[in-house]
């Protein structure tokens, strides 16, 4: 089918409904066992193929439809689903790394990805090293003969630095190293990662794709068939099935994803612009704002921003005071994750998470939901007054 506008692509796929039952929703197909007409038909089926079915763990028409839609959103060719975003990260590492190999991760990486890297280093004979997320072309100096993979995250989902992806990709490819991106922040809507040179796109569908704060799922998208085959093998060996009811929930949310994403984006920019004017806040770490490291990269490479950003409180406030601020919020709830309708707020002990963090003051991350931004601002204002 011809290339569609992203909003249209979110709503139209090549899914065919059963004869005589045309309707918009994709059917939920549950199965462990898939039946074959005879032994010859069983032997002829290949589990890797997406145009036939072998066993529920490898997918049903419901999950294949979701995979096809996600690949299209990212501008990729192949997609594999995993039971969580973190499982999708694990699948990439285990597909591409073996004992003796080296992987580079940005120092601002999603913390469980760092945990995985440390575990691979400690128990699996793989080295995981951490680089300055703003390294750009300088990453070339860190690549060793045994380096196989460079992870990127754009931006880092707590401290919000936006990396120079084309420079990182060029440096890695010059030495035959693959680049993976955790593209969750942009939902695949605001960043065309493959067009910048990235080889593997990972998404936590738990966030905007679900949109309901009720599903855990991940995806890995690629363009290259050989790379997809390696990932498929890891996917099969790890037994990463997803529930078809969950796959359906994500399919149900996709048509509204861009509208929700744009609303989160507009709300977040309104709240962030207000926060920037407040004496309690020393810095707003939002990629669309000039104070954010890598803002120029965001301007060049992104078409939007979504609802997630962080602030640094002025260093004169103790952690006790900023905790009191978070506890005093009424519309913002305290909790991890984002991409759902409700606004969330989490303070991070960033100084302990990073090797070379320079800034003073508590870092607080906001997920701007779909409430009216002026109500959210009023909520923050009343909590400031109780600090
Ligand atoms: C949430 C998240 C993940 C992991 O997703 P889960 O489904 O919670 O495992 C990975 N990366 C980023 C940036 C995330 O925000």
UniProtKB/TrEMBL annotation:
InterPro entries: Cys/Met-Metab_PyrdxlP-dep_enz, Cys_b_lyase_bac, PyrdxlP-dep_Trfase, PyrdxlP-dep_Trfase_major, PyrdxlP-dep_Trfase_small. SUPFAM superfamilies: PLP-dependent transferases. Gene3D superfamilies: Aspartate Aminotransferase, domain 1 (3.90.1150.10), Type I PLP-dependent aspartate aminotransferase-like (Major domain) (3.40.640.10). It is an enzyme of class 4 (lyase). Its cofactor is pyridoxal 5'-phosphate. Keywords: Lyase, Pyridoxal phosphate. Its EC number is 4.4.1.13. It comes from the Bacteria. Coiled coil: none annotated. GO terms for molecular function: cysteine-S-conjugate beta-lyase activity. It catalyses: L,L-cystathionine + H2O = L-homocysteine + pyruvate + NH4(+). The keyword Lyase applies. Belongs to the trans-sulfuration enzymes family. PANTHER family: CYSTATHIONINE BETA-LYASE-RELATED (PTHR43500:SF1). NCBIfam families: cysta_beta_ly_B, PRK07050.1. This is Cystathionine beta-lyase.
